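# nightly structure sweep
# worker-07 picked up a monomer target from the shared queue
# config: single-sequence mode, recycle default, output format = structure tokens
# input follows
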Amino acid sequence: MAKERKPIEEKSIWDDARQMLHKAERDGIDTAWDRLEHQTPHCTSCESGLSCRNCTMGPCRISKKAPLGVCGADGDVIVARNFGRFVSGGCAGHSDHGRDCIEALHAVAHGLTEDYSIKDEAKLLRIASELKISTEGRLVLEVAKDLCNEFFANYGSTIDELSFLCRVPEKRKQIWKNLGITPRGVDREIAEMMHRTHMGCDNDAANTMLHTARTSLADGWAGSMIATEISDILFGTPSPRKSAVNLGVIKKDQVNILVHGHNPIVSEKIVEAVNDPELIALAKEKGAAGINLAGLCCTGNELMMRQGIPMAGNHLMTELAIVTGAVELIVVDYQCIMPSMVTIGNCYHTKMVTTADKAKFTGAEHVKFEMHNGMAQARKVVRMAIERFGLRNDKRVEIPEGTIELVTGFSNEVLLGAMGGTLTPLVDAIKAGKIRGAVAIVGCNNPKYQQDYCNVNLTKELIKKDILVLVTGCVTTATGKAGLLVPEAIEMAGPGLKEICASLGIPPVLHMGSCVDNARVLQLAALLANELGVDISDLPLAGSSPEWYSEKAAAIGTYCVASGIYTHLGHPPNITGSEIVTNLALEGLDNLLGACFGIEPDPFKAAELIDQRIRQKRKALGLGE
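# output follows
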């Protein structure tokens, strides 16, 4: 008997998504929602984390009848091992992105590329000084060489502590030291996690979970933070600018190119190429009015906050963008890219081009981007898009109308600048209760949820309560489409938050970047804690990822908790098969780290949980409501 399909209205809250889902049905296209239905019901052993395939004596599934794996590991150990490896995968993703950024800066510093340069010399010198690298009287490129060496050392085992631990409040560092989880090197922690979870190694669930926290901290305070800071140095520190979001940013009369992934090293060159007069003239020769570039997911965030390039959509919009029938080319780097996009593209005229050897897709064309050939490869890719314009079938083109304006690019530098270079106005607003606290809402879409229902409603509920919201990654598109990323959105905020945002001319929801840029949130939290002379865990802060799905999101959540920030998730990781691990995540970590996870799928109830936490923190600091 065939399963009854979920109504399209229950799949997404957005009109542009619903239009394309109807079109996908008419065109015979399966989307992520359809494939989810094909995959359910899911294996309960896998969902609860009780299956193990770490050796070939298994695979094993823990149950009442079989409480031990072949090796003798129990359910608690297996769940902890699985979660540790899951988080390590996310840390590897974000931190390898950071390594790519170091290699890019290294190429610039050593004169190995003419295609890239340092756009924010002041930030490079500022960070070098922060890390005790001599800058006085030295050439910028010489300082950059030393900064690269410093950052490369964060990936091994040759330094006493990670470079940016200088930003961590002393009270937090002491907690880490007492627990033995001070992060050493990115690669060291990830490798040790893989070793610990090999058969015959760490068989104490709590001990494994502590190393999971240590591994995540290496990502948050090194891999991701390095990626963010170098991206600013190479491509410019974001500042507020207007842009637009929705599938309506795709243009019917132009060659449409979408960039997707996470690394701006590729997409920044595409921006330059689409503005090349020679290529624009070629597009017009082929019958197009011009060349249109738009972003998807975090590469879209990177371009939007630095260049004002519009966003076509977030994770669950990536397939639907192709269904418009008007996209000539999608250029990808890595992470969060659905392999299905190649298949769906073949149903239209859309080609997918991969650019990184670590992220090839069967059926896509590979055009490798390297530091010495980035501009040449970008021009090649844009030419490929132009040549495909003539293959478009106009009868199959359907683009949702309208776009939504948003304001993007609130880096920490911008926030400090708006307050006169000091955190005092923010601290005063928090003390007065006009801003009762702040919450970073980050991460993904998951087809198990109605797309962006949780992301949007949680955000709206929090700003009503005078809680400032910071967003990164795919939540950016959601809040932008909901009209929350413009100054006029203060009308939806509580009276205190409205007053403060109006005085600064900012929205009540601030876009801080892509998912690696959660490191900006860590830095801001540390700055606030140091300003007040307290630990991060004492602050009225929280994090949330309502519709998360990826290993990277688990890594982000874990390093937030390990840094002292209470973190809400819309659904639990695959740990519910272990009472020990679950209790540790939901309660035990609070005693150890001053923060823990909270699980709640309903955004309105989640807002209340977060609000309660912020009330507790304010009360402990002696602050009224």
